[in-house]
Every structure is written in structure tokens, then in C-alpha cells.
Amino acid sequence: MAAIALRSPQYKSATADTGSPNSAKITISIDGTIQYTLVKSTSLNETMLWEIAELCRDFINITFNGTYSAETLAIISTLTSHASTDGSGTALTTSTITDIGYDGYGTFMEGANPTVPFGSRPTWLLSGDPDHTTADNEYYIYVPNNTAGSVPYINATPTDQPTMGYQSYGTTDVEITGSPAGIKMNINRIDCTKYGDGHKVTFVNKFGALQDIWFFLKSVNTTNKKQEQFQRNIITSTGSYNVNTHTKQDYNTVANTSISLSSGYYPEWANQWFEQLLLSEQVWITRPKETDPSTDEVIPVNVKKNSMVKKTSLNDKLIDYTFDFDMSFDYINNIR
Fold first, then answer.
1. 20 pLDDT more than 90
2. How far is it, in rounded angstroms, from Cα 59 to Cα 46?
């Protein structure tokens, strides 16, 4: 059973090598329910090739409200060939392929049909230091002092079911050992009290898991508005007017808020985290409530920038990034 990355194409194939086939059919079952049945023409010894990722990804729904939950799909693809032209009747050949679908992606250089975690299991579902010298110094996270959290992993057992999970850590922990990830996670504690408590950004990374990345330095909040205006007639029936009445009347005012965050200093290899944040389609910020700062709330946001220059210690000495985020809703409630 493979853990397939559904943001990249996933091809399933079988050969129609029995009898006199005229049609090829695939049925795709997702979480126990047949969602798709597709039919096309074929002939003897022809390869029946189907791409399923785009269809399956419609059924994966990753949400985040402060609780980390593993969202994957159980996918069964059944490929058959038939003597009929419409995929009916007895199957001449049958091939059944079982997968677990992750909302991840592979790069072009990682090849076709990418599978999570793009290496061996078990492991953490976030990118580590590619220049590590031992298993104990491959994986790191950077977290403010006195802060707890969770880190995604993929397990190794049972071998036929690559399962995602989240390993929690405490407010004073500096490492995670003995977890289902099977490898040490180092926790670097950062003092960010000069600028507050830091800002936690949670996003769906290339592995299809929820990953936290902390921005430790300053933040800037901005409110923008768009509106229309018309010239209003304020003359009364007696030919006078009220000087306190607007002649230029605003209407259809829409407001949007955004926040700019500075990351603080990260190692050069963490560039891949910020690149994955840039490419993520689902991002959230955890912030104190305006009406009750002692309570946190999770806000959906959209990454504002469309490009990122990767910084290096050679060119830039210290590695830090500034990201702008738009709140994924209008400030003035207009949900109807």
C-alpha cells in the first residue's frame, strides 16, 4: 500500500492481455464508497492507463482549528477490461490497487507518481537538514520558550498501512524521542519576548501534513478598504440644504486586513520550509483574540507574495524572511 501525494499526478495501469477486450474500466473507491466509474476503449495487450489524483483530491478536506488531526483517504482503484464496448459484463482482466491518499506533492526531480514521505518510513513528515551527519541531528523545529505543540509523522507498522499521526511535546521539552516517527526530533527554544510571544503559522506542507513555523520578530497589521461613491443631491423642496449632510456619499464599503510577519533567524536548510509555506494552499495563523487577548483564535489566511528569493549564508549572512498574509475573509461581515 503506497502513500500517494495527490497534488501531483498519480497513474494507475494494467494490461488488457486476456480474451478480446474492447473497453477498459476503472472504479475508484474512496473511504469505502465507489465515487467514480470511468470507461474508455482498449484492445488486446494494450496498457490501460488512468490518472486518479485530480479526482481523489476533491474528497480530502484538511481543516485546522487548533487541533491537529490526520486527514488522508483510503483509495481502492480497480482496473478491468471487458469484451463489451461500455465496460459491462464479466471482466476479462482485473487489477486492484490500494493506496492511502495524502494532500502532498512531489517535485519534478522526484519523478512520477511521488509517494510520501519521499524516503523510508517511519519518519517525521517535515523536511530535515539534508547535510545531517547522524540520525540524531537531521530533524529540528524552532519554538518559543514555554510553548507546547505537535509534529507530524508517518509510522512504519503495520507495513501495509502508512498512517499519519501527530506527536505532541511539552512546554519545556528540548527533544522528542521514542515516538512512532522512530527518529529523534530536536527542539530549539527561542527567546522572542522582545517582540511578544511570536506568531505561529500552520500550513499544509509538501507531505500533506500540518506543520507549524514560528515567526519570532515584529509584526505589522494593516487595514485596507474599497468603496464606491456617488454625488448626492441634498437640495430640499425650498431650495436650501443642510451643511451637515454628505454630498459625496460612500457606499459598498469592503474592508480587508493583512499582517506582515518577520521570521527571525533560521538555518539555511530551513529555506525549504518557507518555500513550502509559499506553495501551500491552506494556511492559518494563531493569534490572541482582540476581545480577549488571553484566549487564542485560529485565522485562515492567504500568502500574499508570489515569489521568494532563497537566502544563503554566503550571500545574506543571516537567514530571515518577511511574509505578508491576507486574512481569508472580509473584515466587515458580509456572509449571506
1. yes
2. 30
Under a CB-based contact definition with an 8 Å cutoff, are residues 257 and 223 in contact? yes
The dihedral over CA atoms of 263, 290, 210, 190, expressed in degrees to the nearest 10, equals 40
pLDDT at 160: 63
- pTM of the complete model: 0.92
Measuring CA to CA, which residue among 187, 28, 185 is closest to residue 99?
Answer: 28
Note the pLDDT tens digit of each residue in 93-123: 999 999 999 999 999 999 999 999 998 889 9
Q: Tell me the CA distances in angstroms from 145 to 137, 173, 188, 284, one per residue in order.
A: 20, 10, 9, 21
Distance CA 195, CA 260 (A): 13
Q: Which domains occur in the chain, in start order?
A: 2-110 (2.60.40), 123-221+255-327 (no CATH)
